[in-house]
Amino acid sequence: MTVAATPQSVLNLATEVANAARRLPLDGLTVVTGGNISARDPETGLIVITPAGAPYRDMSASDIVVVDETGQVVYGSRPPSSEMAMHLELMRRA
């Protein structure tokens, strides 16, 4: 899936996750790349998640990785968080 083919609801969610990631270090909730954020789009079931090893202070929506419910990368140029399996399990239980 390309950015052009990504539903607007997923792009909006990626922006929200990137904004939240940038707030983590500013709010003293993490340092550099520790911790991760993910969210599921209720319209598509796709999950947006912060990438592995990316500094949050410079995070943008284009850095966010989009995966399906099995963890298959649908869109993104970076690998998803190394904690993706935990995020997916929490999404399944929600």
Describe the structure.
The protein has helices at 8-26, 84-93; strands at residues 38-40, 47-49, 65-67, 73-75. It is an alpha+beta fold and 94 residues long. It has a single domain (8-93), classed as Class II aldolase/adducin N-terminal domain (L-fuculose-1-phosphate Aldolase, 3-Layer(aba) Sandwich). The termini are far apart.
Summarize the structure.
The protein has 94 residues and is of the alpha+beta class. The protein is 31% helix and 13% strand.
Structural features:
alpha+beta, globular, 2 helices, 94 residues, 4-stranded antiparallel β-sheet, 13% strand, L-fuculose-1-phosphate Aldolase, single chain
Strand order within the widest beta sheet:
1-2-3-4
In the residues, how many domains can be counted?
1
Mean pLDDT: 89
Secondary-structure element series: HEEEEH
SS-based structural class?
Answer: alpha+beta
The CATH superfamily turns out to be Class II aldolase/adducin N-terminal domain
CATH architecture assignment name: 3-Layer(aba) Sandwich
CATH topology: L-fuculose-1-phosphate Aldolase
What is the name of the CATH class?
A: Alpha Beta
Shape: globular
Point out poorly predicted stretches: none
> Number of helical segments?
2
Task: Profile the largest sheet.
Answer: 4 strands, antiparallel
